[in-house]
Amino acid sequence: MLESQHTNGQEFGTRSGDAGEPCDLVTVPARQGLEAVDILRRGSAPAVGPVLHDAPCDTLGFLVPPGTAAGWDMPGSACTQTHGRGVRLPADPPVTGSNWLLPPDTTGPVTDPAVLREALGQAARLIEAVDRCR
After folding, report:
1. In what order do the strands lie in the sheet with 98-102?
2. Scanning 4, 26, 108, 129, which has the fewest C-beta atoms within 10 Å of its C-beta?
3. Nearest to 43 by CA among 115, 121, 126
4. pLDDT tens per residue, range 7-35
5. What does the alpha-carbon distance between residue 79 and residue 63 come to, in Å, rounded to a whole number?
6. Is the separation of the CB atoms in 100 and 86 below 8 Å?
7. Is residue 88 classed exposed, middle or buried when 0-12, 13-18 and 19+ CB atoms within 10 A define those classes?
8. What is the mean pLDDT of residues 43-69?
9. Other C-beta atoms within 10 Å of 16: how many?
10. How open is the CA angle 55-119-86, to the nearest 5 degrees?
11. Strand partners for 79
């Protein structure tokens, strides 16, 4: 999963040249994450921040505000506190083997955890319904 692995000793979750705080990282299976990204992008307001795709682990990682990990308890996902570890948000993905699904320069700063939780729940229900029809 996209957590704090392969961070190359740089700070994770702040924009280059920005003195902002580090972000936490919510990781989910890629299928659920892709559905959630679609749900978030169809919303009325820009609701999704940068998203990483970790192909080897088949996960997506959503950048969320610092402190989110302390209260994150959504089944099927994990939220990692970065404690300032990782990389600044460059054009290149910060985790070896990953790519930006939504790069930092094309999104808002981070994804709101409440909005993300709702989108992930909706995505899980959609996937479950599709899988029952098979």
Report:
1. 78-80, 24-29, 59-64, 51-54, 98-102
2. 129
3. 115
4. 333 344 444 334 345 788 999 999 999 99
5. 10
6. no
7. middle
8. 88
9. 11
10. 45
11. 26
Instruction: Provide the Cα torsion 3, 43, 105, 92; round to 10°.
Output: 30
Rounded distance, CA 120 to CA 33, Å? 7
Instruction: Report pTM.
Output: 0.79
Nearest to 23 by CA among 91, 108, 106: 108
Task: Find where tokens 């729940």 sit.
Answer: 121
Q: What is the torsional sign of CA 71, 9, 34, 112?
A: positive
Helix or strand (DSSP H, E) at 79:
strand 78-80
Residue 6 tokens read as 């392969």
